[in-house]
């Protein structure tokens, strides 16, 4: 398949190959000359219908490090605002001899829809509350880097599971690699189907942290919540926020992850985000190598 639409559609062998390839590219981007000529003959369009800092810049940088030609498109400044459809938009971009499309969209299934309707390789950079496959790959890669492997590790995903594409992709990726996954959060933010995925729900943050090796603290997606949603930000921070006192009171050293952007003082306090136990900026750094690997492996199938 010439697409990366979700973790659900790839295999543990695919993940291992992506990680081995990312190991190579991580070494490359730490050299004085950070570029390789691998994709000189490939043109990639990054089309973002939702805001992004990390994913958009990280894909762009990954593509440039591979020597691909890159064009970037933000829906807010485009003719989408004049009513142009998704398929028309992408087909017009493809007629400029583009080979691959990286897309973020607010609708779950948008990347699948595109893959069925246009002739290009599609990478899903986040589709609504569905999947964010490259985020899950870079998260697992960062666990593997810090703890040696993902297999056998206990990972708790904390917070707004209901609105999170990061949670679903992480659950698939972690389980596929032999990790045990739990979720923790207020029951208003835990989807009903979660236990059918083999994921236990823990409502008490301290108990969840005492169980885990890794805590992935998700952002509360305020933009997707009603004004009167329970819990309030203050209640959320009190019950599900991770501060240094709680982290230091655990009888082992866990690692703390966050996909960003952080609501400092809500999901985690600054002293946790900036501590030695936090791998948040490692996640961002690894995102470039992992996205280089995904792009390189997909492009090698269309060359
Ligand atoms: N983690 C993540 O997807 O961040 P952005 O929304 O900034 O891309």
Briefly note the structural class of the backbone: alpha/beta
> Could you please say which CATH topology of the largest domain applies here?
Rossmann fold
The helix-strand sequence is HEHEHEHEHEHEEHEHHEHH
Radius of gyration: 19 Å
Regions with little confidence, pLDDT below 50 for 5+ residues:
none
* Overall pLDDT: 96
* Intertermini distance: 13 Å
Q: Your description of this structure?
A:
40% of the residues lie in helices and 15% in strands. It is α/β, with parallel strands linked by helices. It has 2 domains: 7-131 and 284-302, Rossmann fold; 133-279, 3-Layer(aba) Sandwich (Rossmann fold). The strands form 2 sheets. It has a 5-stranded parallel sheet with strand order 7-6-5-8-9. The protein starts with 11 loop residues before the first helix and ends with a helix. Residues 52-55, 126, 135, 259-261 line the site of phosphoric acid mono(formamide)ester (CP).
